[in-house]
Amino acid sequence: MNxxxxxxxxxxxxxxxxxxxxxxxxxxxxxxxRNIAIVxxxxxxNCTFGEGIHPDFSGYMAKYLRSILGEDxxxxxxxxxxxxxxxxxYRDLNPPRGHEMTHKVARILAGEYSEYIVK
Length: 119
Prior knowledge:
Layout: E1 24-29, E2 35-41, H1 56-69, E3 77-78, H2 98-118
Parallel strand pairs: 2-3
Antiparallel strand pairs: 1-2
Helix pairs in contact: 1-2
């Protein structure tokens, strides 16, 4: 989790091990087939923004899903197992940061689900 590392000094770094790229999702519907909840499990620390109190990517992912499936939708997020997994590509000297990165991750995760169900 070397967030503050000088990225120029780690350009030859290799990943420490495998990651889990799967997004696990469980949808909960009412008896009359209304969406009640989308439960999401993804192995990434919920700290892409990095400053202060913030909903981070899981909060924005929930917002995107609610815009598709209804404002009453509940979206619990489980970040695990995470270990040493983070969103930083140390080979990219100018990666997206702050709000840009947070919204990028949120849109990708919401899209993984919404593309599956909307078709």
